[in-house]
Amino acid sequence: MLTGKDYRESLADGRIVYCDGERVEDVSTADRFRRSVDVIAGGYDRYHDDNPDAISAYLNAPSSIEELRDHANLKVDPLISSTYTSLMTLLTSADRIEEIRPESSAAIRKYVRQMQEKDLRIVECITDAKGDRAKRPGQQEDRDAYLRVVEQRPDGVVIRGAKLHISWAPLAHELMTIPTKAMKPGEEEYAIACAVPVNAPGVKIINVTADPLAGDLRDAPISTDAHSPMGFVIFDDVFVPNDRIFLNGETEAAASFAHSLGLWVRINGLKNMADEADVMVGFAQLVAEANGLERVDQIKDKIADMVIHATLIRATLEAAMGNSSISPEGVVVPDELYANTGKFQGAAYRNAMIQHIQDIAGGSVVTAPSTKDLANPEIGEIVRKYMGTKQSIDGNYRTRLFHALRDFTASAYAGHQAVSVIQAGGGLFAQRVVTRSRYDMATARQMALDLACLDDPWA
Ligand SMILES: Cc1cc2nc3c(=O)[nH]c(=O)nc-3n(C[C@H](O)[C@H](O)[C@H](O)COP(=O)(O)OP(=O)(O)OC[C@H]3O[C@@H](n4cnc5c(N)ncnc54)[C@H](O)[C@@H]3O)c2cc1C
Questions:
Q1: How far is the CA of 344 from the centre of ligand 1 (A)?
Q2: CA 135 – ligand 1 centroid, Å
Q3: Average per-residue pLDDT in the chain?
Q4: 310: which of 22, 250, 277, 282 fits an S-S bond (Cβ 3.0–4.6 Å)?
């Protein structure tokens, strides 16, 4: 297993990364990535095991519902979480494509083992540039709007295209690259799934981050560590050798990867949402107490709404895990109906929960003086005095609580999160599609007919 130091060193591998219009020579030391690298390196150190045969417990596929549940409760960094999602996506897809492409099933299992043994980090490259959304890949004016194979060779393929919005791309080692959706006959060049090293010749990554750009990082206690780089990953005629190709032209299996990924991204997203929903309740309660209003009815009602929201999200997470199935290869697969319902609920109603926090908290969410103001000998005492509520609620504590609330609900990072929760893992429409297809409509329909004492007109 790698240590945090090994990880930092591993990033100096010739990768081509840009940020703010400039080439980043060393991502491990660049200002815009420094905090994110610290978070990932810290994750490596926390779980490091000196045993040469050890592999990260987090990267093992759970083989029972209990293991799945224990796994979901581990606190880890987002990049290892993305690695786990990628490995589980590949293993689930390996089962689904076994009959069509047995050689890829074997290649996937070998690749997964290698990644576990080398302790490398993987990001999920799915979302294509997509060009004109109303047109299919093969109908685009620019054929590269969806990633495609531009050359078949005896020893591999050459791919061209771009994958956008890729979380953590510049800080990972591997790009799990899969089709964004189902492909039809005639779209064989787009039915490509493979694994590409971040430093492969032809890969370029252009980044943005939602880091707190200016000021005192103590005023941004959440986003300082929680923000992530987002990569626009370009594949400029990248060669992929045969042993890293998992799909090549089999259009009928193109959707298997995206479906498998959708499931694992949503179950992971749901876990984060369940935790975040509890944090939101906690923030609402803390600020109600800090304002002296925790016993007032209209405040308690809002917090009760938030408690119901948090509890519903956790219930869907529990139901998704509790109703898991086991694949023929022994991989536990969470229930898609509950996972997608929970992800939809969490994303669609999150803004209402943020609004409750802001409503309960008051204007200091955006106007509380800074940490440096608190520390200034001329004005610090005055800030403390007027930000205080009563003896048990010191102005220092209350100001810092408002800094956290601003960071969480009203900063650039908060805006980033609002979009992220809706779009990452597929927009709300994607969850509507899956829930409709997995829901037992026939039984629901029959129950309604029975209650209405009607015969089925279609029978
Ligand atoms: C913070 C963040 C992190 C992300 N991380 C990753 C990542 O790590 N890896 C990755 O691969 N992707 C990632 N994504 C991408 C995410 O999956 C996409 O943003 C999402 O799938 C929507 O795609 P899009 O942004 O291209 O929007 P579009 O596809 O343009 O969709 C915009 C809207 O148009 C609708 N729409 C699009 N096409 C049609 C159509 N033909 N007919 C009807 N309606 C249509 C959609 O339903 C949606 O409502 C991330 C996104 C965000 C915001």
A1: 15
A2: 15
A3: 92
A4: 277
